[in-house]
Amino acid sequence: QITLKESGPALVKPTQTLTLTCTFSGFSLRTRGVAVGWIRQPPGKALEWLAVIHWNDDKRYSPSLQSRLTISQGTTNNQVVLTMTNMDPVDTATYYCGNRPGYYDNYFESWGQGTLVTVSS
Amino acid sequence: QSALTQPASVSGSPGQSITISCTGSSSDVGTYNSVSWFLQHPGKAPKLIIFDVSNRPSGISNRFSGSKSGNTASLTISGLQAEDEADYYCMSHTTRSTFVFGTGTTVSVL
């Protein structure tokens, strides 16, 4: 059974850097083709794809947010970390992580429950 | 990359069929058969219901079906049920090896 869970601060101040962790089980990021992605959703608005990291450490970012995002593997084999710099109130959103199951699978099969991040002074 | 275009809302009566469109470009929907659809109930995480244009994950009702023509993908829900009331999002892989979501569609069951 695949599970993912997002964790991080519920509140950050404008200009601060946000660090979120996705902790997963049921699959390995060392398996060829596997990837973990981050997606966010501002309250009442649409989903927005942010970043993805692949089994071979290849990383891709949303073109509009690329300068502010960094995705990396965590300190343990079952974690992926996303950092977003220079946070602004418009970045208030629920942040999700999801898994891409295989090499030819360009979709996110399972998702975490999401974590709400509010940006406010 | 611009968000894929979906109608803001679609409605239907119980038992009817509805179709949600998802229009992109030759940089995403038009190039790959990598369009997926997600269902999201209020306060819940999105759930995958269609992948690779027309494939259903295990456990997803066959009332959900997908197709694609050119730069537009479509999701059809047949035999509409009250539980189908939710937000629906399409997503596509892109030529830059990134992903892009649709603008989202709220489905109402009258």
Task: Explain how this protein is built.
The complex is a heterodimer of chains A (121) and B (110). In chain A, 0% of the residues lie in helices and 48% in strands. Chain A starts with a strand and ends with a strand. Chain A is built from no helices and 11 strands. In chain A, a hairpin with a 6-residue loop joins strand 4 and strand 5. In chain A, strands 2, 4, 5, 6, 9, 10 and 11 form a 7-stranded mixed sheet that branches. Chain B has no helices and 9 strands. In chain B, strands 1, 3, 4, 7, 8 and 9 form a 6-stranded mixed sheet that branches. In chain B, strands 2-6-5 form a 3-stranded antiparallel sheet, with no helix packed on it. In chain B, a hairpin with a 2-residue loop joins strand 5 and strand 6. At the A-B interface, strand 5 and strand 10 of A face strand 3, strand 7 and strand 8 of B.
Task: Please give a quick description of this structure.
Chain A is mostly beta strands. Chain A is built from no helices and eleven strands.
